[in-house]
Design a protein that fits this description.
The complex is a heterodimer of chains A (about 525) and B (about 300). Chain A is built from 23 helices and 8 strands. Chain A is mainly alpha-helical and about 525 residues long. In chain A, helix 2 crosses helix 10 and helix 18 (about 410-415) packs parallel to helix 23 (about 510-520). The longest helix of chain A has 19 residues, at about 235-250. With about 300 residues, chain B is mainly α. Chain B contains 12 helices and no strands. Among the domains of chain B are: about 1-5 and about 95-230, Up-down Bundle (Fumarate Reductase Cytochrome B subunit), CATH 1.20.950.20; about 265-300, no CATH class. The termini of chain B are far apart. The chains are: A mainly alpha (about 525), B mainly alpha (about 300).
Chain lengths: ~525, ~300
């Protein structure tokens, strides 16, 4: 592995600091028969010529190269001004204390490194250490924000602030899933994932630089059309009507999704991606809630029908705007609670991170995992576990589990309805990210997908194959239950890349699909063993 | 020489206390941040702590009193503070070096406190007993800190994993502790010195007529400088750690009137973020920014 020095980040030559080499990555799990995946796709000549690709030969942001040194200097000044703002309460009261504590208290002992799936999967690539980017920001902070002199350099080291460094740091901010597994192991309580989050904020909030998929096609589109999928209220109602019809036909139970019901018990917020990519998920929710006699509704108010909140990953203002729209839609309908569907980041965004922003709009937000557990345990549904008599494992979405503490409800359900349920190791709050966290699941510019499947998803791939190690025979269908839309997106792409369906008949899906599949009032065979 | 040693010892402790208080004030006066907890949270109900769960696992969580599981917190914190449980669990190699170093420092603090008490009760039997224990703690503390500090120094110097994260300051921090304690041990063993009780008494009464071996004096002076230096470096992580755990990792308090009132004040701050979609012009406050739709036509952005 090429040795990377922290100060290399400021190197002026355009060559990537490091190129991940296939033979250096963590060996693939035995379940793949020792077959390596395709090699990294090299960046096109056009991308290399026009975009900043000096980090690792992977390009997530397609950041255009400045045309002159003057332009570079303007950008560097902007970056520095963003760094300074990051350490002021007026601009960053939202995360100032955690950030400052991480900057000032980290002892740089590297205890966190081994907990990071990216670092491990990359074959311990120095640049993917959780501390690598933090060390760069720390040196900038002490030198430029604290205006440290000789003593500061003695304590914290030095760094050259120039455009190549800024450009590389922008990319490096998008080489972290923000899963915070590293923070969990830090004896001091420093949080290197937070540093990646805060760096993304500088780039977005000061410089207008963000991954296109999460800003322009994400939060901006959501605020404009109502959903990052582009569905406006009329389109989403049409789609849901179609799903209701499909569900009625498939289950044999009349399925109806109520819209804009004032005073309902729950406003149900789905990740709108489910409606388009996995329509059986919102359909299954409707089937379960109706069968259990729950009073619920969806909202056709702008943004009120798409639970996503990509601001969580990169921009406080975008985050607050979407969160307030969500809770505003619920208030307008005078519902009693918000029920968050199978979407991990939506769970954390609305329940945890937005909690202190609610003001007068504050109202109860409830996890679908807990509500579904209560329904299943109550006996309101007649369930036949033998319908789910195939190996099932559970993926823990980081946002829902480690970062919110919703751990057991989904397990209680699976223990009741899936006789062959088995855990991944490690699991629960010690889980590994699917590799699609922090927006990566929807990002595939240039060759970024290769990085997602070869590096960020590698640990999850290993976990899945290990969990099914006793039944990898393709004659046995297997199910990875991932109650999170983004995680499912990553699994769909990851499993397809590694051909897990053809090789091992491993399917992924949500939790509600398994519940409906077990309902005796539903026609058998709800779960379709087809790759999708 | 003795006067200088005593002066530096008092000055070191004073500068240390001032630095620590400054740090505490700095961190405690910061605005309340958005929630950023990390599970498991040990003050959760015991049945949930076991699997790392939160009150969000209940469907009517907002109707219930928040759990105050002090035993859970102490059960986590005490082994963490005294035994460095996190390192034991996640970085055993470092624990073998770091634990003796930190525990040695705890013993030295204990020895200093007991010596002070011994000096106060000097005329009584209890004073002598306190000095006996203090002597035991001091010797053990000096030995452990020297060994641990030297081991940490060597690791910093030789471990390729730390190359990018080790500067001269890091080497100085651990090296100076080891050197200071080592000098005191060596000086005392090689040249002898007055009993600990007499030294504590002289220190308390600022009796500079007492004589100390040069090596002991050098060790005490270096140690005093280091003590004063601690709060101005990342070695003050013992202060930071209170906040990283109690104010961040474990801060799962749901919104309430007190929190809402603080946040209402922060929403009047006027951000200056320059990206066009933020529009932080220093005039609009956070409440206005958060309720502006950047995709709407300018006249209907609100």
């Amino acid at each position: 592995m090429k040795d990377v020095d922290i100060r290399d980040i400021s190197r002026r030559d355009p060559e990537p600091l490091v190129l991940p080499q296939m033979n250096e990555l963590k060996p693939l799990p035995a379940g793949l028969g020792g077959v390596d995946g395709p090699a990294f796709t090299p960046l096109s000549a056009q991308t290399t010529e026009k975009c900043e690709c000096g980090l690792d030969g992977v390009c997530a942001l397609s950041l255009p190269k400045p045309k002159s040194r003057e332009e570079e200097e303007v950008l560097v000044k902007k970056f520095l001004s963003g760094v300074e703002k990051l350490f002021t309460k007026e601009n960053n009261w939202t995360f100032l204390q955690p950030l400052l504590l991480t900057m000032e208290a980290c002892t740089r002992c590297q205890t966190c490194s081994d907990s990071c799936h990216l670092y491990e999967a990359s074959g311990r690539n120095e640049m993917y250490r959780p501390t690598f980017r933090s060390e760069i920001l720390r040196r900038i902070y002490f030198k430029h924000v604290k205006q440290g002199g000789v003593l500061s350099r003695f304590q914290h080291g030095d760094i050259e602030l120039n455009w190549p460094m800024v450009a590389r740091l922008a990319e490096l901010a998008y080489r972290c899933n923000l899963c915070r597994r590293c923070a969990q192991t830090c004896p001091i309580g420093a949080d290197n994932a937070l540093v990646a989050h805060e760096l993304r904020k500088i780039f977005s909030m000061e410089m207008g630089i963000a991954a296109k998929e999460i800003h322009e096609n994400g939060s901006m589109k959501q605020l404009k059309t109502g959903s990052s999928t582009g569905m406006n209220p009329a389109a989403v109602k049409d789609n849901i009507e179609f799903i209701d019809d499909e569900m009625t036909e498939k289950t044999g139970i009349e399925t109806h999704t109520p819209w804009d019901v004032e005073g309902a018990e729950y406003l149900v917020l789905h990740n709108a991606g489910e409606i388009l990519a996995w329509p059986e998920n919102p359909g299954a929710f409707a089937t379960i809630l109706n069968a259990a006699g729950v009073s619920w509704t969806m909202s056709s108010e702008l943004v009120g029908y798409d639970s996503i909140n990509y601001g969580l990953w990169y921009d406080d203002a975008q985050f607050a705007r979407v969160a307030l729209k969500h809770v505003g839609a619920a208030k307008n309908l005078k519902v009693k609670k918000i029920l968050i569907g199978e979407c991990g980041h939506a769970h954390k965004a609305l329940s945890v991170i937005a909690d202190r922003l609610m003001g007068e709009l504050n109202m109860p937000r409830v996890s679908s995992m807990s509500v579904l557990r209560d329904i299943v345990v109550s006996g309101k549904l007649d369930l036949d576990p033998s319908r789910n008599n195939f190996p099932v494992t559970l993926h823990d979405p980081c946002n829902m589990v480690r970062l919110m503490g919703v751990v057991e409800p989904q397990r209680e359900i699976l223990r009741l309805i899936a006789p062959q349920f088995r855990e991944m190791e490690p699991h629960g709050v010690n889980n590994y990210c699917c590799g699609g966290g922090s927006g990566f699941a929807i990002m595939s510019p240039n060759n970024f997908s290769d990085w997602r499947f070869q590096i960020s998803g590698r640990k999850k791939l290993e976990q899945v194959l290990t969990a099914f190690g006793d039944c990898l025979d393709p004659a046995i269908p297997k199910y990875v239950c991932a109650p999170c839309s983004n995680c499912k997106g990553q699994m769909r792409d990851l499993f397809a890349y590694w051909n897990l369906w053809d090789k091992h008949q491993i399917l992924y899906g949500g939790l509600v699909e398994l519940i409906v599949n077990a309902m005796t009032t539903v026609k058998p065979g709800f779960l379709e063993w087809q790759w999708h | 020489m003795t006067a200088l040693v005593f002066f530096l010892m008092y000055a070191g402790i004073l500068v240390f206390l001032i630095g620590c208080i400054r740090r505490v004030l700095q961190y405690s006066r910061m605005p309340l941040h958005l929630r950023w907890e990390l599970y498991p949270v040990p003050h959760e109900a015991p049945e949930r702590v076991r699997h790392g769960g939160s009150y969000f696992e209940e469907t009517e969580w907002w109707k219930k009193e928040q759990t105050a599981n002090l035993a859970g917190e102490l059960g986590f914190m005490i082994p963490e503070m005294l035994l460095l449980r996190g390192l034991w669990e996640f970085n055993r190699k470092l624990w073998y070096r770091s634990f003796p170093f930190h525990f040695g420092l705890y013993l030295l603090i204990g020895a200093a406190i007991l010596s002070g008490m011994g000096a106060i009760f000097g005329g009584f039997a209890v004073g002598a007993a306190l000095f006996t224990v203090a002597r035991l703690l001091a010797w053990s503390g000096l030995a452990l800190t020297t060994l641990g500090g030297a081991a940490l120094f060597w690791r910093r110097l030789t471990d390729p994993e730390l190359r990018n994260y080790t500067g001269l300051g890091d080497l100085f921090n651990v090296g100076a502790f080891a050197l200071a304690c080592g000098l005191v041990i060596f000086g005392k063993l090689a040249y002898g010195m007055m009993p600990m009780g007499a030294f504590a008494h002289a220190l308390f009464t600022f009796d500079t007529s007492v004589k100390m071996p040069v090596m002991v004096s050098a060790g005490l002076m270096l140690g005093s400088v280091i003590v004063g230096y601690i709060p101005y470096t990342h070695m003050a992580h013992f202060v930071a750690k209170y906040f990283t755990y109690h104010s961040i990792r474990w801060d799962d308090a749901p919104n309430n009137a007190k929190i809402a009132s603080k946040v209402a004040e922060y929403l009047t701050y006027r951000p200056t973020w320059l990206a066009p979609h933020i529009g932080g012009d220093g005039v609009k406050n956070w409440a206005e920014v958060a309720t502006t739709n950047p995709t709407a036509a300018p006249e209907v952005r609100k």
